[in-house]
Amino acid sequence: MEHIELEALTLEDYQELKALMITSYDTVDDPYWEKYQIKRLIDIFPEGQVVIKVNKVLAGCVLSIIIDEDHFEKHHTYKQVTGDYTFNTHHPHGTILYGIDIFIKKEFRGMRLGRRLYDYRKELCEKLNLKSIIFGGRMPNYIQYQGKLTPRMYLEKVKNRDIFDPVLNFQMSNDFHPIRVLKGYLEGDAASNEYAVLMKWDNIYYEKPTLNIRTTKTIVKLGLVQWQMRPYKNLEELLQQVEFFVDALSSYRCDFALFPEFFNAPLMAAFNHLSESEAIRELSTYTDEIVQNFSRLSVKYNIHIITGSMPELDEGVLLNVGYLCKRDGSLERFEKLHVTPDEAKIWGMKGGNMLKTFDTDCGKIGVLICYDVEFPELPRMLAEDGLDILFVPFLTDTQNGYSRVRNCARARAIENECYVAIAGSVGNLPNVHNMDIQYAQSAVFTPCDFSFPTDGLKAEATPNTEMILIVDVDLDLLKELHNHGAVKNLKDRRLDLYKLNRKSHLNKGD
Fold first, then answer.
1. Model confidence over 71-104: pLDDT tens digits?
2. Across-strand partners of 331?
3. Is 408 tagged catalytic?
4. What is the pTM of this model?
């Protein structure tokens, strides 16, 4: 083969096309389309009719129409879906690409030319923003088993590779999955005993048409603040530093700003004369004002802000909480569920009970505070809700503690097929009890597959240096991974053997 090309089908191809159909369907009555029928297809939907040529010789063809999904996703016949072979069922504003025909010349089979035609159909489906591709797949080997196996039993054995069917096996190897058996599908198809299997391929990029002018971004820019712990005279001075970072990230058109856990700890210096548990409770009195300022900045700079975390008293119970300040002015709250032994012993802090994902114009996100990312059940429950990006504000004093957060975050990105962004604080606070030293290297982690970095590391900051880290992530790559990855961690779970249950008192915040 010196030259292979895909071309739009034209009427000049008809005689060669007719001869090809006759040889391809030698076991079927009326094996070819008449010229006026081909003309009709070309007139109503030229993009759907394509041939593949090898050295200028017609080697294969694919014919398609667009249909309304409400009419033909259930049981139907080939005659019905083609409108008694008139193609008046073609609906330019439908949502389903229906495969009318696909065939390859016998001497060119085994050269993956059929795959090229299927790939063209998939690209066309995505280009036209159609929901899926469906068609009736013939069962040409079923004649050898009728009387011994029902069509459903035959299909199961083909799926399990106990029986080889050249048509169904090829279609399933090209990511089409069987929906149901169609009885009396194609008149005169003796080899299949007129049975077929409704096959389907879903377009993961399909977006339902809407009048809402807001769209979900697919390329999302993350801004991570690696915060320097330093003395501040008062809250106003700390908030000036906050706005400096928000302004900087906004100037790079970031969609998110992530601050670390307990970034406001320097304000506890004013309460050093108190015990540690009393000082952290005094720090909690600033939380409401800080959140209101973050919310104002998110609107002013058009950026979603994840506030890191701060202490908060809730009916006398000390919690570690944070807020998602959306750029539309709305607020969402999250809680640390697992407090560290140090937080519980020294501060008397308790774990919260809220776990949920948040919808944004940049996909679905979740936030876990520091220690929480070391418990794989939490990110898995968020992944089951459709998580795209997991944000982890953290505070660690030693490299050991940091390594626990980092390595667990990398694992969460792989096993939950999502992006994970971690941001922490650096520097020293000699005048604040229980907050002496900090160690951090903020980073963004990805799954490990062909579309991502081989080591799952998208970017990382310089260790123990105040800076911002700006990273672009592509949400469409996650969709591709979920459906076509080398491995599919979420889909391949053995839910017949194990299941993760959310307790009723674990509030989703809905």
1. 776 789 999 999 999 999 999 999 999 999 998 9
2. 325
3. no
4. 0.78
